[in-house]
Amino acid sequence: MSCFGCFAPEADEDVKPAKPDDSSSPFSISVRSLFGWILCLGLLPDFHWETGADARRKVAPDVANGYAHSFTFKDLLVATGYFNEANFIGEGGFGKVYKGKINGQAKSSAGVIVAVKKLNPESVQGLQEWQSEVNFLGRLSHPNLVRLLGYCGEDRELLLVYEFMIKGSLENHLFRRVSQEPLPWNTRLKIAIGAARGLAFLHSSEKQVIYRDFKASNILLDSDFTAKLSDFGLAKNGPSAGRSHVTTRIIGTYGYAAPEYVATGHLYVKSDVYGFGVVLLELLTGLRAHDLNRPSHQQNLVDWARPFLAGRGKLTSLMDQRLGGQYPPKAALQAARLANRCLAGDPRSRPAMADVLAALEGIEAMQAPAGAKGSHRDLPPRPVSRPSPYRDSSMPR
């Protein structure tokens, strides 16, 4: 489970100070120094372990060639108000996530709001994911990847520091904000395009990366709904030359994992494309990939939706009813057909992410300009109550 999936949908930037009974001298971190490190993000290849008589752990990443900022545990205690529960914003298998503020030395500095992910000391999986995150995000930089600003590996404390994404996760906006207006069509399309750019970048990087856990809770949104991929704890390097896949322990999220990976443990680059297809389907339908609250034949979104993905006559049955019909039918149909291609059972039949991105950008371009007759581009969704989480029983099984 992604820690970031629990972010409040509309988080503010207020960070609560330490509790009154906390006693330590004030400590500040230079914002100028921090950003200097951010600009130099690079590979952190090796981790070395020390053991002493007290059996405490210490992690020392080799930062000779790369340069995410190394924080002390005291730095992050102060930044989060001593992990004040008022700053708690998420929790997952790795541990807890807190909002924090890295203060500047100058009194006029407003500081930098960050998200601090803190390892559960008892979690073996968390340690592995911490190493993976530092390795991958330490050497990768792209507008559609969440920035890793720094890390801490001190004694039994393992933490990661990220840029703070004020709009939270896509999961929150699609499934948890019952009392709020649903995401408009164009915002959904923008999110799909941003996520596709991030995933296409990973697949085309010099050292190809398979993300492995592409899902709505791992897509974070900034103030203007630009999508950024987060949580690289399960990411894997792509297959070596001459090989089509990597074989690995089956791990991920039910409903998003590609069938060939679930059946064999063989992980392909195209396995990520399947996960993207599931998220695209969630954006179209407003329904979760898997939901035990739906009737048995509708619990798996992909299985339920397949009959509706190819035919235009069935499009209205597929689309999120909260949109109130406020979407361009041709564009929505093309998006549904693209999702169907991404969800092909044979990974060889799925498009590459670069082609998926090109298709989505084409869908965006085909929409009528804002203000044109019949345009749905800037219309908000019609105010409707959220429908039942499943369709009526007359739909095909």
How many domains? 2
Shape: globular
What is the rounded distance between the termini? 30 Å
The spatial strand order of the largest sheet comes to: 3-7-8-6-5-4
CATH superfamily of the largest domain: Transferase(Phosphotransferase) domain 1
> Could you list the spans in which at least 5 consecutive residues all have pLDDT below 50?
4-9, 20-65, 371-379, 382-397
The proportion of residues in beta strands is 5-15%
Can you give the helix content as a percent range? Answer: 25-40%
H/E element string?
Answer: HEEEHEEEHEEHHEEEEEHEHHHHH
CATH topology of the largest domain: Transferase(Phosphotransferase), domain 1
Report the sheet with the most strands, covering strand number, pairing sense and barrel closure.
Answer: 6 strands, mixed
Calculate the mean pLDDT score and round it: 79
Tell me which CATH architecture of the largest domain applies here.
Orthogonal Bundle
DSSP E strands, number: 14
- In angstroms, what is the radius of gyration? 22 Å
CATH class of the largest domain: Mainly Alpha
- Supply the number of helical segments: 11
What does this structure look like?
This is Protein kinase domain-containing protein. The protein is an alpha+beta fold. It folds into 2 domains: 3-163, Phosphorylase Kinase, domain 1 (2-Layer Sandwich); 170-366, Transferase(Phosphotransferase), domain 1, CATH 1.10.510.10. It has helices at 31-39, 73-79, 124-137, 170-176, 185-204, 259-264, 269-285, 301-309, 315-318, 329-342, 353-366, and strands at residues 49-50, 58-59, 69-70, 88-91, 95-102, 112-119, 148-154, 157-163, 209-210, 219-221, 227-229, 236-237, 246-247, 266-267. Strands 3-7-8-6-5-4 form a 6-stranded mixed sheet, with helices on both faces. The protein has a two-stranded antiparallel sheet with strand order 1-2. It has a two-stranded antiparallel ribbon with strand order 9-12. The two termini are 30 Å apart. The relative contact order is 0.11.
